[in-house]
Write a structure and sequence with these properties.
about 250 residues, single chain, globular, 7 helices, alpha/beta, binds NADP nicotinamide-adenine-dinucleotide phosphate
Length: about 250
């Protein structure tokens, strides 16, 4: 299929999980994909899996100079950016009493500051009619005791799609949100939760969600593809929740 034929798609956090699954799908749909992340080995693995057509760029989205370099490289190599998937994120779980200033700054720095400046610094390169997709999370409307800063960062990301859509309407740039439920990715191993707590948390979610299982990264990629492609041309400032019914049923 050629739903993104000859489009230039930049995916932050494109070296793992949801971002990498999306890179594979976008590429299969004809896009030239630029993936970004911090870890050199993960970048090399993603680059070799995606092959010579893809570009992998080392960048930490919490550092504006890195974001500038990423967007400049992506935007000037192939003639602008058509799809920007702002997906890089971290989700360390910490009890409210144990949240430090460092934890707060780190989570907000990657998930919110990183998301905002990824869009802002891409502006000179975004083509007319570009699609911007921001990864939020179902936690933007839920209360998880160990994820206060994370959830707040993702609620702010949801808000950004509205104001950025308003600001960019004259360039026909659409900004929408993908909010995953619990998805089987390496992120779950990086929450810092002890194994048994993580298993208990996963069990609770699986019991509550009508589908009775966690989601797959490919199931997020297909929603991202819809938002990236012209199939969603009348969708602006919206949120697509893909959580197996967890927050809806
Ligand atoms: N998995 C879930 O259940 C779930 C649920 C709701 C929302 N989400 C959201 O979905 C997005 C993708 O998560 P995932 O589950 O696919 O996790 P993942 O497998 O851990 O992938 C996260 C990606 O983000 C990159 N990243 C993290 N910090 C970064 C930074 N400062 N600068 C640049 N890249 C950075 C990682 O690469 P490096 O570490 O090498 O930088 C990696 O490529 C995140 O925004 C997450 O919050 C996930």
């Amino acid at each position: 299929m050629d739903r993104l034929k000859d489009k230039i798609a930049v995916i932050t956090g494109g070296t793992s999980g949801i971002g990498l699954a999306t890179a594979r799908l976008f590429q299969a749909e004809g896009a030239h994909v630029v993936v970004a992340g911090r870890n050199r080995d993960a970048l090399d693995r993603a680059a070799s899996e995606l092959g010579g057509e893809a570009t992998a760029i080392q960048a930490d989205v919490s550092r504006i100079e890195d974001v500038d370099r990423l967007m400049h490289a992506a935007g000037t190599t192939h003639g602008g950016i058509d799809v920007l998937f702002v997906n890089a994120g971290i989700a360390p779980f910490v009890a409210v009493e144990d949240v430090t200033e460092e934890h707060f700054d780190e989570v907000i720095g990657v998930n919110l500051k990183g998301a905002f400046f990824s869009v802002q610094r891409a502006l000179p390169y975004l083509n007319e009619g570009a699609s911007v997709i921001l990864t939020s999370s179902v936690v933007n409307t839920m209360g998880l005791p160990m994820a206060s800063v994370y959830s707040a960062s993702k609620a702010a990301v949801r808000s950004l799609a509205r104001s950025l859509s308003a600001a960019l309407a004259d360039r026909r740039i659409r900004v929408n949100v993908l909010s995953p439920g619990l998805i089987e990715t390496p992120l779950l191993g990086k929450t810092g939760l002890p194994k048994e707590m993580l298993e208990g948390f996963t069990e609770q979610i699986v019991e509550r969600a009508p589908v009775g299982r966690v989601g797959r990264p490919e199931e997020m990629a297909s929603v991202a593809l819809f938002l990236a492609s012209d199939a969603s041309s009348y969708v602006v400032g919206s949120e697509f929740t893909a959580d197996g019914g967890l927050t809806q049923v």
